[in-house]
Amino acid sequence: MPLRTPAPVLPRRERPARLPEIVPDPVDPPHRPGSAGEHVLQDQVGSVARADRFYGDQLRDRLLPRMVEFIARMEMAFVATADGHGECDSSLRAGPPGFVRVLDEFTLAYPEYRGNGVYASLGNLVENPHVGILMVDFTESLIGLHVNGRARIVDDEVFRASFPAAGGEESGGRRAERWVVVEVEEAYIHCRKHIPRMERVTQRREWGTDDPARKGGDFFGAKGTPQRAPRPARRRFPSTTHLGGGASRALRRRPHSR
User: pTM higher than 0.85 for the full model?
Assistant: First the structure.
């Protein structure tokens, strides 16, 4: 029996052994919300007072009652994740109203159904549990809600047993394979200024299909093209540390441990 020729292994982009860490400025209050990078830029552009007003008025470490009501009527959520090296991915999750479940004021969960088998978002969460979720009401309130937190992946059977009150029933002919349970760390508003108003239309959804055509097929013409192509020389842009005035100190790199 002839041996099969192994498929060629595509080279992966070289990654650093570890990411440089952002070290907060020693004078920055440790209890102040936001990242060190946010604080550096706020200081440089003079928006510290405006940012602190937003933090104080709008950013909370839990889901408030009106946030819970908002989530209960959402039919889609944009999910942002990053792997252990900081390489990012964003994806859409959708379902009938209430597909994102609020388990309590500090915890929510959303289902993961059978997809393309890549597991880009879940794979990132295996390496890095931090997740950012954006839900937007395009038809009524024209407002958005950010929820940031730490996630864990739970099989459907375990989820149903652990959170029986949340329900795990099938949705549109689909049953979740697993759930992403998120411990809420930040919840805050996304302003309506640039949210377009959309009109709801009735549309039959092929929730459970594996038919490539019904899933979108090769809409972008990727099939048959090279997976990787030579990249042009990159333009060099100045680092954010060109801001000076303490920015480079606050964003300085720690030496790698040997």
Answer: no
